[in-house]
From TrEMBL:
InterPro entries: Homeodomain-like_sf, Resolv_N, Resolvase-like_N_sf, Resolvase_HTH_dom, SSR_resolvase. SUPFAM superfamilies: Homeodomain-like, Resolvase-like. Belongs to the site-specific recombinase resolvase family. One of its GO terms (molecular function) is DNA binding. Residues 1-139 form the Resolvase/invertase-type recombinase catalytic domain. This is Integrase. Residues 134-153 are annotated as: Disordered.
């Protein structure tokens, strides 16, 4: 069976989502899963359903790699999962080229892209560490401003009003552990 997956980051992108769906159906997708959720979200219910429904021999089509995966590492993990299930992936628009994991050259291209992305990420982290070390030497680096401790008074007040730790964390958009830390200060 041929499946499709379409995603946009926000609900404002309805036309973009519909364009992806149309393109996937034009490629012969018998069933298209779609959702409007940020790519950085850990949970994407429609993608999860799609992956659960794939069976050996199925093909998954996406218009672009960033519609499917959060980053290159995630893309490679998904490809590995698909291969484990006996399925394949077709990316319709990869710099003007269509990549199909049933083809050795496409697999090579995706693996090379993954290696390059991983290398770039390592270089970026290395430069960041060097920059932080230099800023510390010059006395300019103070680190990230602690968000929970800056809201310590609000946390204390809300707790004294009987608001639960979980609700405080949700309202202030911080972790429960941060709330506990602020309360123990």
């Amino acid at each position: 069976m041929i499946f499709g997956y379409a995603r946009t980051s926000t609900h404002d992108q309805q036309h973009g989502l519909q364009a992806q769906i149309d393109e996937l159906k034009g490629q012969g997708c018998e069933r298209v899963y779609s959702e409007q959720v940020s790519g950085t979200e850990r949970t994407r219910p429609e993608l999860t359903k799609l992956l659960d429904n794939l069976r050996q021999g199925d093909v998954l089509y996406v218009t672009k790699p960033d519609r499917l995966a959060r980053n290159t590492q995630h893309l490679l993990e998904l490809i590995e999962l698909l291969e484990h299930k006996g399925c394949s992936l077709v990316i319709l628009s990869m710099g003007g080229t269509q990549l199909d994991t049933r083809n050795a050259t496409s697999k090579l291209m995706l693996t090379m892209l993954g290696a390059i992305a991983e290398f770039e990420r390592a270089l970026m982290k290395e430069r960041q560490r060097e920059g932080i070390a230099k800023a510390k030497e010059q006395g300019k680096y103070r680190g990230r401003k602690p968000t929970a401790m800056a809201q310590s008074q609000d946390i204390q007040k809300m707790k004294s009003e009987g608001v639960s730790v979980t609700d405080i964390a949700k309202k202030l958009n911080i972790s429960r552990m941060s709330v506990y830390r602020a309360l123990s200060e």
